[in-house]
Amino acid sequence: MSKTQTYSGQVLLRDEWLTYSLVRSPRRRRVAMKITNNGQLEVQAPLDLSPKTIEELLLSEASWLARALTEARGNRQPIHPPVMTGRTLPLLDEQLCLVVAVADSPRIYRSGQELWLHSPSSATEELTSVLNSWYQHQAWLYLPPRLRPFAERLEVRPTKVTVRSQKTRWGSCSIRGTISLNWRLMLLPSVLADYVLAHELCHLRHLDHSPRFWALVSTLIPDYPKRRSALRQASASLPL
Fold first, then answer.
1. Structural domain of residue 23, as residue ranges?
2. Rg of the Cα atoms in the chain
3. Could you tell me the CA-to-CA distances from 13 to 20, 32, 184 in Å, in that order?
4. 123 assigned to some structural domain
5. What confidence tens digit (pLDDT) does each residue in 18-63 have?
6. CA distance 179 to 158
7. Rounded CA gap, 86 and 227, in Å?
8. Residue 44's closest CA among 6, 79, 101?
9. What pLDDT does residue 108 have?
10. Quick one: which of 97, 114, 172, 235 is 20 to 30 A from 216 by CA?
């Protein structure tokens, strides 16, 4: 009797790629889907069920999957250090020292290696909101221009580039050619941010994760397996 097989699969769900783990077993007679404790989709299927059939089943449950994943991931509340003077925050390859001060209205600006945050409130939620807005602005300034050299090498051009506050992904490329980037890329070392940019641009040539896609990624980022692994680890320790 054949043994249980475990794979990693992907399906294009509502213009975004969803990664899932696929467990195929000779003992299973029907498909079952569940959301794991870490907010990931696990699909259990019979051994002889074709990948195409599994993908069709996932697409037929698109609404349920979207709701279930959003709920599961929304229940995971990351614990961040308090927003206070002396805290260090990354900005790509730099480290900025936060200085919090009382003021009549919210304001944030950088002075050398210090990031000054003025606010009338000392509530963590309000201070974090001001910080998030500042980082999102930095992302708009940095990320779209940083895409250009990679796009030129690939001879591709996205139809649109957006910077968003995605909760579950670093970036995405839609079937319409829109590239969406997470502003939290600015909290990563530049080598990891570059990997995400190159990854999404390669989807303009191959809207899948086939061997051809990864071969194309390797032309831009030869050590992409190493960066991909480091990116997974970084996801669990973001400061914001």
1. 5-74
2. 21
3. 12, 18, 23
4. yes
5. 777 778 788 888 888 877 766 677 888 888 777 778 888 888 877 7
6. 6
7. 30
8. 6
9. 92
10. 235
